[in-house]
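Input for the complex:
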Amino acid sequence: MPAFTPPPLPSDDKRWKIVNGTMRKNGFARHALIETLHTVQSSFGYLDDDAIRFVARSLRVPLSQAYGVVTFYHYFSLKPPGEHTMTLCTGTACYIKGTDKLVAAAEQHLKVKAGQTTNDGKISLMTARCVGACSRAPVAICDGEVAGEVTSEQLLAQLERWAVE
Amino acid sequence: MTIEELEQIAKSVHQENAKYDYEVNVCMDLACASQGADKLREALVKSATASGKKVLIRKTGCMGPCSSGPLVRVDPEEHLYHHVGAGHADAIVQSLGGNPVPALQCDLNDHFDKQVRVVLENAGHIDPEKIDDYISREGYKALLTALTEMTPNGVVHRITESGLRGRGGGGYPTGLKWGTVAKAGGELKYVVCNGDEGDPGAFMDRSVMEGDPHRVIEGMAIAAYAVGANKGFIYVRAEYPVAVARLTTALRDARRRGLLGSNICGTTFNFDIEIRLGAGAFVCGEETALIASIEGRRGTPKPRPPYPAVSGLWGKPTLINNVETYANIAPIVRNGGKWFYNMGSERSKGTKVFALTGKITNTGLVEVPMGIKLSEIIDVIGGGVPGGHKLKAVQTGGPSGGCIPAEMLGLGVSYDALMAAGSIMGSGGMIVMDDTSCMVNVARFFIEFCMTESCGKCIPCRAGTAQMFTLLTRFCEGSGTMEDLELLVDLCNTVKETSLCGLGMTAPNPVLSTLKYFKSEYIEHIVHKRCPAGVCNITGAAAVEQSPVEVVA
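Predicted:
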């Protein structure tokens, strides 16, 4: 059987080299699929068709299987994120402390549903299944920064600050 | 690395620490960090340098009472300060050697007195990014003792003797599991650490992985020696980036010190660990789904048997234990099985870490001996329900567990007692609910969780949870009937008995337990179209008073 040659990088974007690095580190083994998809998402912010095709071909995984994995796990996103991301934790402790009201307030303010990005591409509103900061519920993650004991006023003020930037 | 070298490292750490007159420990765990612990630490370093005093400022893992954060503990006096800000740095440094800062002192004696720390023994005392700190507190001593003085069988025997049961929630005897993997044939075996803490409202495993990562690694290495494995995987949620970073650092340092790799401690034992990231699927906490995920596939469970102990990762015998289980191993090997066996209740040994959250004064991490009464955890350690509200229920076990009503707080915490009460031990989430929580809504919340997280492989779970959610939504909106309630109970039993994996089998628990203890709330919603806690939004036509007779008929 001829030796397998991985496909060429999709473009000369340096980030593909990082993606390729993850696959090489794992010897282009099929079980590296999730690891590699993590690298793609952390490098590009999301997973587009080109990326999934490239990873699937490189690891010799059927495209259907790669797509199946991407859509199975909540962490992977097929759409580019907004400039800013507001993630509201909806774990049990946050729920008990009224996170549903925060989600409703943010949805109304941004005129999008949780999981969507505003039309101008500025803000993504996401929910998380528990970030493990339960003692400070309700918790919001503003562009990666964890904020605890969040009130609707604080939440809307932050969204407002992002909107006028 | 030999035991002598290990002791030498510990000695040099103690000598180094002895150069300082004071140690100021700053909790850098998520809760404290989100309130400016990092700025506080910088300010302390600055103040200490300016003062000329010999002060060691240490970043530590979770100290426990998160609601009082950011926390600082000054040693050797053991003064604990709460709600510390960067502005307090000068005052703290000035007070060293004199009287403590009164404004920052907190009285949490009741909170700590009832606790017994085994898993969390190093939390708040070591810098999780320094392997030598861990070694200075007897770290890796158990591993080297096991490798040089014990046979693999001897290790399994000691774990069996300790009576340790799986801390992931199921409570399967750990020694028995290890014995099965040890007896399984074949050259290649794996050891897996389940760090996919998907239970919302629980963060014990995150704190252990972040605050004391070497403890997990040491536990896994001992397990690998006992069962005859050479390769390990730690499966961590991608939502825990700090845990991933700390484990990565810890693995690197352990390799450098020769505590992982080939011929550990000059023996023939080889072992190394890789980290695998989860990707946000609750079902991956189930062991066969976790295996599928490590193999790079969708996390769908498989029917058992064969159990992973016989045929797991890539078809090889695989030992899977939870983070907290591994965290218990080193102290058991060090102190003996009897020592552990003497703690706890009759059939649940040792201690358990709980993440105490919800409507309670002292939220945070607590470690208590098994058998302790729930009321002691809630009233004494937790400081009771704040704001003059009345305790309604305590939820344990997350989406797989149930709600224990206030009347049953005399219950001792053990695997069997919690199960008999219709809940489960679970991984350790303990969420306190007061009179502002609607139990029907709580049940709906958990069923929504299970519905979204169902992998879809088996029909009872996939379709059953969706139908249960629809019925519960009807109750919450005021359009449910008594027939719906009967149907719900029927569905619960079907889903419980026929689902493929633990997710489906336990999904009805929150509904069944709230029905058992809070049926009157369901009846209020159905018959009187009223939510006693004022949570559910019952409006319009549904809210019109109907006589109970009409509805039942």
